[in-house]
Amino acid sequence: MNNKKKKRAQVPFRLNMLFFVVFVLFSMLILRLGIVQIVYGEDFKREIERTEDVTVNNPVPRGKMYDRNSKTIVDNVPNDAITFTRSQSTKPEEMLKVAEKLAGMIEMDTKKVRDRDKKDYWILRHPKEAKKKITKKEWTLYNQKKLNDKKIYDLQLDRITPEELNLPKEELEILAIFREFNSGYALAPQIVKKHVTPEELARVNENLEDLPGVDTTTDWERHYAFDKTLKSVLGKVSGSDEGLPKERIDYYLSRDYSRNDRVGKSYLELQYEDVLHGQKAKVKNKTDKAGNVLDTEIVSEGARGEDLMLSIDMDLQLAVEKIIEEELMRAKQNGSTGLLDRAFVVLMDPHTGEVLTMAGKRLERDEETGRTVMQDFALGNITTSYNVGSTVKGATILTGFKAGAIAPGTSFYDTPILIKGTPPKKSWKQGLGTLNDVNALKVSSNVYMFRTAINIGKGNYVPNQSLVVSDDAFEIFRNSFAQFGLGVRTGIDLPNEMVGFKGNDKSPGRTGFLMDFSIGQFDTYTPMQLAQYASTIANGGSRIQPRLVKEIREPVLDSNEVGPVLKRFEPVVLNQVDTTPEWMGRVHDGFRKVMQEPGGTAYGSFGSAPYHPAGKTGTAEAVYDGPLRKQFNGPKLTMNLSLIGYAPHDNPEVAMSVMVPWAYDSDTGHHANNDIGRRVLDTYFELKKKRQEEKMNLVQPEQKVEEKEEGEELLQEISG
User: Fold this and answer.
1) Can 300 be counted among the known catalytic residues?
2) Does the structural domain 316-689 have CATH classification 3.40.47.10?
3) For the segment 479-508, what is each residue's pLDDT rounded down to a tens digit?
């Protein structure tokens, strides 16, 4: 009995202890909740309501490009577009649902969809089937952390069959849209489709509430008014699906660009990216802790990029290109060579360096049609170089003066140079007689230049004996030529300008090579270098930096007018040639005789020109290194033609270079360099005259009205 009473007494005691423990625990919980709510409540509330401001830069249209006469060369064409902006918390499944809805409203191009895109899409669409692609053993290894998520996903990708990737057109369109959704960055609008039709735009606008993240906007594309003119020089812009170039992504990101911004990729578009890209619109997105956008605030509207006014005269450019095409085809039809495929012309203001024309054409085979077509190759004026021949002889004469190798009036008898163990080195024509420096330029004597080079190299020439020149002879020549722009970068405002190639002056036969150098048949030069050299001679010895951009203009919104000048580029003198007025005058006289006196090498082409030109022709024997070189077992010799000039000779306003590489490879030649040069200068002065007459015609009617009114007033006074 007593044992039973003791047991009954212990049960209530245990229950009471249990209740007491529970009571204490609940009390502690309530106390803790009270502390959290009363003491830290405001802090936690602020944490829950905490938002984040994320600023996004939206791109704006790029600046335009005009020619020197305000003719539009590069513009922006607006297009309706559909964009998608995903928040930081948007899930792939949510984007897929939106893509399904949008696919029912627009036609979507599926060409960009790759097999990898299809595989990712299939896994997202079929998660259960994808899971079954992994064996039990592999899942065990995964649970044991011997396989990671990436390895499991790669196994799933590898085991998707071709049949499973055979998607119908409707599914491919959904995938194409989803692909664009997924390629964008959080809170940055991503273009899903450009060139949206009015019907598609209306359907999407009507259903924007059911398409979270989707919006319509006005996109822009670069438009080149002259599709086959200067295209290679103007450059390219990256597409909206390409964004920042990978090789320069860090550079642009450090300058506040977004990853999907379109930027200049080459040449003028790249060179003036900082000017053309404009001030991007800034939008501040206020997001909650989960990344959902709560509010959007426009920080700045942004502004279109500033405009470039080029130095190019587009009317002249087009006319020169037509001349090149016609003369190139005429030379080809003569059948003198199958290698001739290109020609170049540069026109420049010799006093400012402004490039008026930068023309180049190249014949290429169209891979689709198999036909030969004429392509723009203006870029070749700075990216290709050639042996130019006798056009450099003006620089050779001035180098001889400076080195003390010859003096104004020094004469040599034009007879072949005979060096022991080598073939005779002679002029292009025999019987030129005794020549001074001026007449040597007029008739293009090689021998005169050879004798000058030998003297520069301090050689002791004795016919039929060995001849050695000093070690510094090439250095003297190259340093002097560089003062004219030959063999160095001209400084033109374009990237990737080449210098040209230097011949190996350390090899055996260097004495002969020095003589070859003096007549432009050793080192190679670009057509732009030739133009800078011609300008330096024309203006009396100032090497001017060539420029394609004349001014930066303020953009004018909603107008085709050119805005006010923001910056004007003044002429930049890179160096003064180490010469005297007397020395330069001798070269000027020689160049004048080349084109204006009977016997001059270009007199037949330019003797009747009313604008009194001066210049120098060039023919160089060169080794062909063009696109057909693999067809030949060894070196293939060919002839390059060149021409430099300026006009009028006594007060030059335009300087010119013409380059026709690989012009012919037989005894039957042609003079495409002179034919092109004459037509080009004729065109320049005819266009100038035409514009002056048009300007006069605009002024004259106003003058006639004023004269009529004055006459009527006089009659009234007389009759009164």
Assistant:
1) no
2) no
3) 999 999 999 999 999 999 999 999 998 877
